[in-house]
User: What shape does this take?
Amino acid sequence: MRIVSYNIEWFDALFDDAGNLLTDGAWSARRDVTRDQQATAIATILHAIDADAVMVIEAPDTNSRRNTVRALQTFAEEAGLRTRQAIIGFPNQTQQEIALLYDPDVITAEHKPMGLPDAPHAPRFDTRFRIDLDVDATQDEVQFSKPPLELAVTTASGTVLRMIGVHLKSKAPHGASSRDEVMRLSIANRRKQLAQAIWLRQRVMQHLTDGESLILMGDLNDGPGLDEYEDLFGRSSVEIVAGEPPHHLFDPHAREALSAKLAAAPTSARFYIAPEKRYLQALLDYIMISPDLMTRSPRWRIWHPFDDPDCWAQPELRDALITASDHFPVVLDIDL
Assistant: This one.
């Protein structure tokens, strides 16, 4: 079975309120890319990957007018994808949903959130988590801007597992007017993101101690060496979510990045830094699996157009990967 995590930058901008795909020459929400170019590139990539399930990060919006499932299923139909069924969990207010696009002949998926609302330990993801963020003996309230998608999945062969789609986000220091204020807001926002990681880790522990198979995937927006505040907190969100043996989640790219000091680490995203006129590459996207799934012959691959020789050797695919998004697909092949 092939499972993919793919952050598709501003996928929502390719649809109208009725869920119709906009394939014209107007600009997409990506820099210097038209809607037709981005839509074509996404379809090219998804055909090439030929996945059984794709966790779409930054999926089209759901609100009073728009519908994630309708938009994704329209895209799948027009692109001729076998991943033709879509499911989301708790919608959010950011215009960037988390959704699973999957082949219903291969798996069935049900939104199955865990936790009680506002519980003191591992509450439901659309509510609040209480934790002391700044060691002042006062409980702070933390919320997900994008509640993780919790799915109960059954494969055609009868394998039962849990999937969690995530998109952790640390807000930029908007409104800061001085260097000190930028630092203060950045540290406060990083604390909130690490609290979200702790919340997510509590849910992971529930699944692992219950003996459930688990695949956690998505954009953790954090990793070793990503910013100057890492030394202040000691651990990244990635390390918190992955945990320690025996109740750990495994991703070889995360392990390689955590063990690398001066050596080059894998990357899954590429951003243009306009003031510096250069690109920044980072490892932000992961597929982590529970220890029991390590016996299922897992094989990981990041479809990076410059780092993966097979992607580089196919000009149409290489160009599509650059055009479609600022993130690249992370692919897991596993016997399920």
User: Anything to note?
Assistant: The CA atoms of residues 16 and 304 lie 30 Å apart. Helices lie at 35-49, 68-79, 179-209, 230-233, 237-242, 252-259, 309-312, 315-324. The chain has eight helices and 15 strands.
